[in-house]
Each structure stands twice: as C-alpha cells, then as structure tokens.
Amino acid sequence: MKVEIGGINGYMSNPYAAQGHQVTDGKGVGPEHQIKPGKKSSPAECETCKNRKYTDGSDEMVSFKAPGHIDPDNAAAVVLGHEQEHVSNAYNKARNNNGHVERATVRLKTDICPECGRSYISGGETNTQIKYYNEENPYQKDLKQTDAVKYRGANVDIAA
C-alpha cells in the first residue's frame, strides 16, 4: 500500500500516521524506507542527501577543494580522514619551521536533513596550536636563563 504524503505545514495527511502506524515510501519495509512524521521522504528516497556536496574552505592543499559527494553512510570516516590531513599538515609545518605541535583537535559537525530527517555529518573542524622556537629572539634567550635559575636544584636529594 503506497501512502500519499502532503498536508498543511508539512504534516502528514494520512490517518494511519496519526494513529502511530509506520508510513513507508512504498518501495521497501526497512527503517531506510520509513517516512518520519513531518518529513517529505524516507532516507532511501531523499534527493537532498543524494545531492549533498562537501567542499573545503581552508587555504591548505588538502582534499575536497572542488565540491564532491560523499555517501551518507561513509561520511564520518571520509570527513575524519580529511580533517586528519589538516593535522598532518600542522605536524609537517612545525617540523619544517623548528616548532612543536602543542595540541591538535578535530571536531565533526552533525546536522539533520530537512527533507528526510536523517542525522548526517555536515562537516568538520580542525584546530591546531604550534609553538615555534626562535633561538635568536632576545626574549627567548632571557626565558631560557630565567628557566635555568628556576629549575636549578629542583631535583636535588638533600638527605644523600
């Protein structure tokens, strides 16, 4: 039995849906074919999810400079791999410029598809903090001298 979806403000006009019965898209029975209340389609039929493209807005040379589609089932792994490229670039930059990566964090962002109601990975964000050592900087030299005074005798065993 195929159920027609429609109504005012996106609500279903199907009396079975109002009584708690599951409404499907007519092409299958599993959860990927169920239409959530207030949504236009099932995840299997969602055009928004099929046409979603990912692109990278940073100035680094990484993947997804040109918009590309990712299968919604693999989006978390692919986006995480992409963000790992940014982390790898930070370590290379630190190594080449006499620096040290203090921290690197990756965060995946999620959102809800307005058409089918599926939760999806909408992108990622990488934050890195690199500390650079400049031995010629007079402030760095002074810092080393004050650290030497501060730590001198810190690990002495007086009882010995």
Task: List its traits.
6 strands, 28% helix, 160 residues, alpha+beta, two-stranded antiparallel ribbon, disordered N terminus, elongated
> How is the biggest beta sheet arranged?
2 strands, antiparallel
Secondary structure class reads: alpha+beta
Poorly predicted tracts of residues: 1-19
What's the number of extended β-strand segments?
6
Q: Radius of gyration, Cα only, in angstroms?
A: 27 Å
Global mean pLDDT: 77
Broad shape: elongated
Order of helices and strands: HEEHEEHEEH
| Biggest sheet, spatial arrangement of strands | 1-2
Work out the helicity level: 25-40%
Beta-strand content: 15-25%
Give an overview of the whole structure.
28% of the residues lie in helices and 22% in strands. The chain is an alpha+beta fold and 160 residues long. It starts with 14 loop residues before the first helix and ends in a 9-residue tail after the last helix. It has 4 helices and 6 strands, in the order αββαββαββα. The protein is elongated, with a radius of gyration of 27 Å. 10% of the residues are buried. A two-stranded antiparallel ribbon has the order 1-2. A two-stranded antiparallel ribbon has the order 3-4. Strands 5-6 form a two-stranded antiparallel sheet. β5 and β6 form a beta hairpin. The N terminus is likely disordered.
